[in-house]
Amino acid sequence: MTRAIDTMTTKKTSIVLQFIKDNPTGIIGLILVFSSIICAIFAPSIAPYDPGAASLGHRLDMPKWIDDTGKSQYLLGGDQVGRDLLSRIIYGARISLLVGLCGVAISLTLGTFLGIVAGYFGKWLDDLIMRLAEVQLGLPFILLAIVIMSVFGTGIEKIIVILGLTYWVSFARLIRGEILALKEQEYIQAAKAIGGTDFKIIIKHILPNVASPILVLATMCIAEFILLEASLTFLGLGVEPTVPSWGGMLADSRNYMTSAWWISVFPGIAIMLTVLGFNLLGDWLRDRLDPNMKV
Amino acid sequence: MKKYNWLTMLLVCIMLLLVACSGGTSTENGNKNNGKSSGKNPATTRGNELVVRVAGDPQNWDPIDTYLVAWSTVGTSVFEGLVSRSLDLEIQPGLAESWDYVDDKTIVFKLRQGVTFHDGEPFNAEAVKFTFDRLLGEEGQKGPQYSNYTSINRVEVTGEYEVTMHLNSIDPVLLTKLSGYGAVIVPPKYIEEHGAAYFDMNPVGTGPFKMTDYQRDKQVVIERYEDYWNKDAIKLDKVTFKVIPETATALAELQTGNIDIMTRLEVSQAPSAEDTDFITLMDVATPTAYSIRFDTSKAPVDDVRVRQAINYAIDKETIVKEILGGYGNLISSFQSELSFGYNKDLQPYPYDPEKAKKLLAEAKIAEGTTLDFFIPGTDGTFKEIAQAVAFYLEEVGLKVSINSVENTTFQSELIPNGEAGHMYKNGWGGWTLDFDNTAYLMYHEGEFWNPSYKNDEVEQLLAKERATNDSAEREKIFKELTEVLYEDATEVNLYSEVEIYAVNKRVKNFQPPHDGRFRFENVTVE
Amino acid sequence: MQSTISSILSEEDGCMLSYILRRLSHTVLVIIAVSLIIFFSIRLTGDPVSIMFGAGEPSQQAIDELTAKLGLDKPVWEQYFIFMKDLLMLDFGTSYRSNSPVLDLLLERAWPTIALALGGMSVALTIAVPIGILSAVNKGKPVDIFGRIFSLLGISFPNFWLAFMLILIFAVKLKWLPVSGFDSFSSLILPSIALGLILSGILVRLIRTSMLDVLKMQYVTTARAKGIREWLVIVRHAFRNALLPTVTFVGLQFGGLLGGAVIVEQVFSWPGIGRLIVDSINQRDYPVVQGGIIILALLMIIVNLIVDLCYSLINPKIRTGRGDN
C-alpha cells in the first residue's frame, strides 16, 4: 500500500522534474515573473521599511553587509534622501507591473480591434488602418510623450496611456497577418457559407486562433514597456520622484554609478530580472504555442 | 537535471559579473591604497592646448541673438565689450581705456588704439557706433538682447577713438551690461560683406582667441589671435570646447584624460572625481539663486503666516550640507551674496518646526492640507531637494504633492500662467550681479516671471531704485526691499549655487569664473 | 509558349505598376497626416517666442515683432498651408535657434546618424547570425539555451544604463575605447554595441525561427541525404532561405534606427538626428521638429514600401493587398 503511493509520488515528482528539465527557460521566466508579482502584491508586508520615509541622516548609507561602521541599518543601503533601497525596490515592482500590464491592456485592445477589422473586412478599411499604422510609426514616441505631458501634465497614468496608444501597431499588424492566413481556411469559409454572422465568426473562430500569438506579443511588450518607463524618466518625462519606480531610481542614480554604486546596481538588477523574466516567458510561450511566429 | 544546473550556474555567473563590473569600479575608486591605474595622467601628451567640456552650445554666435551662458562661456574669449568684467567681478577697461560720466545720462568712452578684429579690420569709434545701432535697431529688436539696453538712446562718434553714449534714463547697471552679451563690439565691414547668417556661424571679434572651427552640438575650437592687443597674457595655442550633454559621460571623459576641464560637475559625482589622482576640484560661488517660489494668489499660501511657517519648517542648512555636500550658500533674499543689493544683515529663516506649527495653527490650516509643488523633471539634484522639502513639511502637518514636469513647459507655460501649483522651483542667473534686474522681473506686477505677486511698497521701492545712479542710495533701497520681501515671505530662499569644476592637474593658473565666462589669460598647461 | 509567358509578364507588370502607384498615393496621404499631427500638436506645447527671449525683459512690441517675423501671428491653418507650400519646393524653413536652414541642419547630422545605424546593425548581425543559426541547429541543447538567454539579456536592460556600463567598463576602466564623441572609427564602437545589443535580441529570435522553418523543408533533407557536409547544408541551403525575413526586419528597423537612437546619442554625445529632434522639441524649434520628423517618416515609409515590393515580387499573392508580413 505505502509502496504504491510511494511510486506514485515518485512518478509525479519525476514528471515535474521532467517538465522542468524540458523547459528550463520557461521555468526561470515563470519564477522571475512570479516573484515580481509577489513583490508587487505583498509589498507592504515584505518591505522592511516605509519606502517614502526620508531621513537625510541615512543618505547614501552603504548596504548593511559591506558597511564596517555599523551605521547602516538598510540591507541594500540607503538612497539619495536616505530611504531604504530594498523597500523601494519591492514597491517599485508595483509601478513597473502597473505600467507594463495596463499599457499592454490598452495597446492590446486597440491593436486587436483594429487588426481584426483590417484583416477580416479588408478593402478600404484595411488600407485605412494600415496607413494609420504608418502614420503612427512615423511619429516619434518621444514627441508624442512630450506633447501629451505638456498638455495634460505628467504622471504614471499618462505614461501608461502614451505607451498604450503608441504600441497598438505591433498588435494590429500581427493579428491582421494571422487573420489573412485564417480567412482562406476551409472551416471559416464554411461558417460563412452557412450564414454565420461576422461577429460570431470573429468571436468563435478567429479570436481563439489568434489568442496565442497575442499572448506571446503581450508578454514581450510588457518587458519593453517596463524599460520604456525608465527611458522616459531618463529624458525627464517620468513619474514623480516620490513614487518608487525602478526606472526613476535608475535614471536618477546615473551620477552615483561610481560613488554609490548600490543605488544604481540593485534597481538595475531588479529591472533586468523582471524584464528577462517576461522575455523568457514570452519566448517559451511562443515555442510551445506558435513556433512559427516571427516576433 | 544536468541541463538545469548548468543553466542556473550561468545565470548566477552573469549576475556576479555584472555586480563585479559595476561594483568593482567603485570599490577601486573608493580605496585609495589600491594601487589604481589612474595614477598616470593620460592628458599630458596633449600639446599646448586645452579641452573644456560644455553641456551645450548656443547654436548661433551672433551676440544680439542669444542670452545663454553657453554663449558667454566661449563668446568672452572671442568678443570684447567696451568694459570688461574680471574674474573677480571688477569692472575694468576693455576696448575703452577710460570713461567719464559727463552727467547722469551721458558717458564719454576713450577707445583703445591699435586694436584689430580677427579679420584684420581696424577697431574704432565707427565700429562701436555700428554695434549699438545694430543692437538698438530693427535687427536687434527682434532678438533677446535689445531689452537689456533700452536705456541707451544712441551712440555718437566724437573722435576716431572716442564715442559718447546718450541715455534715455538713468541706468545703474549699464556698465556691467556693457561687458558682455549684446554690447560686445562686432566688425562692421565683415558683417556687411558676409551677411548676418554667415556671421552667426563664423563670428569675428577683437578677443584673445579667434574661432576656427564650429561644429554644432559637437565642438567649438578657438585659437590664439596673434595680433591681440594684450597677447602676452595668452599662453595657450588652442582651446577646444567639446559638447557633452550627459554629466556622467563628461566625468568619464575627464577620468580618461580626454578633457581637461569639466564644468558643472554634479555634487553626486564629486567623490568619484576626487578619487582620481590627476583631477582636482575647484568650486566657485555663482550669481545663481534657487528658491521655492509661492504663487501668492492660491490658498492657503496667500496667507503670509503659511508662507512664513513653510520657511521655518524647512531645514535649509541640512539640505545644503547633506544633499549639496556643502556646495551651496544659504541666502536670505533671492540673489547670491555676490550680487549688489544682497542684505548681509538679514539672516535666513532659522529651522524652527515649533514656530511653523504655531503659525499654521494661527492661520487655521488643517492637518494634512496638500500643497502642489512643481519641479522640472530633468534636474536630479532638485528632485532630491524637493523630496527633502516634502519630508520637512510633512513633519509640521502639511502634505506635499511633487509634480515633476517637462522642463520647457514648466518655464514657458506653467510659471508665467500661474499653473505651477502652490509653489515651484525658481532658479535665477542674475548675470548683472545686481539685484535690480532680478527684483524687477520677479516682483514687479505683470512680469512674465511674476504670475501673481502684488505689493505696493515693493513697487515704490523698485521705481525709486531705478531712478538713481548713486550706489549708496541704491544699497539703502535694496536693504529695505529685501526686508519687505523677507517679511512677506514670497519664497523659501534655499541657496545660491556653488559650481564645481573638475580640472586636470596639468592645467595651471586656471580660475573658475563666477559667471560662467571663461578667461584664459595666463592659463598654462604642463 | 514564349508568348504566353510574355503575356503573363506584361499582365503582371501592369498589375505591379498599379500597385506601386496606389501605394505611392497612400504614401502622400500618410505624409500629409503626419505633417498635420506634428504641426498642430507641437503648437499645443508652448510658445517658442517666450523661450527665445529667455531671461530678458521684452516689451510687448518686441514680442509681437518676433512673432510676426516667425510667421506665428497668422492663423494656424494659414501657417500650415504656407509650410506645406514651402515643403513642396523642398524648403523646410529656418531654425529658430540657429537661424540656419533646417535642411542644412539635417544634412549635417545625416552622416553620423547613418554611421551609427550601420554600426548598430553590423553589431546586431554579427552577434545574432551565429547565435541564431547555432540555436536553431542545436535546438533544445545548452548552446540553444545559452544563446537565447544571452540575446534576451541584451534587451533586458534600460539602454542608458547599458550605455553607461559600457563606458565605465571599456572606456574608463579598461581604457580600450574612447568614451564619447564622433571623431574616429573607434568612437563608433561603443555606441554601436549599445544599439546593436538591443537589436540582436530580437534578431536572434527571428533567425532562429526562420532557420527552424527552413530546416524542416524537403530540400534540406534532400541535401543532407546527398551527403553534403552538414555545415554546408546549413549555410548554403538553410541560412540562405532564412535570410529573407531577416533582411525584411533589418530594413524595417533601419528606418526606425535613424531617428530612434536618441538615448544612445545623448549618452555618447553623438551628433545624430534623434538628438537634434529632441533638442528642438525641448526648445520648441518648430521648423526643425516638423522638417526632421517628416523626413524620417518619409524614409520609413519608403523602406516599408521597398520591403513590401520585394515581398510581392517573390510571392505574388500579397500583391492584391493581402498581408504585409
UniProtKB/TrEMBL annotation, chain A:
Residues annotated as domain ABC transmembrane type-1: 93-282
Q: Organism's domain of life?
A: Bacteria
Instruction: Give the subcellular location.
Output: Cell membrane
* Pfam families found in the cross-reference section: BPD_transp_1, OppC_N
Membrane-topology annotation of the record: Multi-pass membrane protein
Record's keyword terms, sorted: Cell membrane, Membrane, Transmembrane, Transmembrane helix, Transport
Task: List membrane-spanning regions.
Answer: 27-49, 95-121, 141-169, 214-239, 259-281
Is Transmembrane helix given among the entry's keywords?
Answer: yes
Where is the major localization of this protein? membrane
The cross-references to InterPro entries, in alphabetical order and at most eight, read: BP-dependent_transpt_permease, MetI-like, MetI-like_sf, OppC_N
Q: Which GO terms describe its cellular component?
A: plasma membrane
Q: Name one GO biological process term.
A: transmembrane transport
Recorded family membership: Belongs to the binding-protein-dependent transport system permease family.
The record's PANTHER family line, in alphabetical order, gives: D,D-DIPEPTIDE TRANSPORT SYSTEM PERMEASE PROTEIN DDPC-RELATED (PTHR43386:SF1), OLIGOPEPTIDE TRANSPORT SYSTEM PERMEASE PROTEIN APPC (PTHR43386)
Q: Kindly provide the name given to this protein in its UniProt entry.
A: ABC transporter permease
Organism, scientific name: Lysinibacillus mangiferihumi
UniProtKB/TrEMBL annotation, chain B:
Q: Which InterPro entries match?
A: Peptide/Ni-bd, SBP_5, SBP_5_dom
This protein's UniProt keywords: Signal, Transport
Q: Could you tell me the Gene Ontology terms of the biological process aspect for this record?
A: peptide transport
Q: Where is this region: Disordered?
A: 26-46
Q: Which residues form the signal peptide?
A: 1-20
Q: Where is the composition biased (Low complexity)?
A: 26-41
GO-annotated cellular components = ATP-binding cassette (ABC) transporter complex; periplasmic space
Specify the protein name: ABC transporter substrate-binding protein
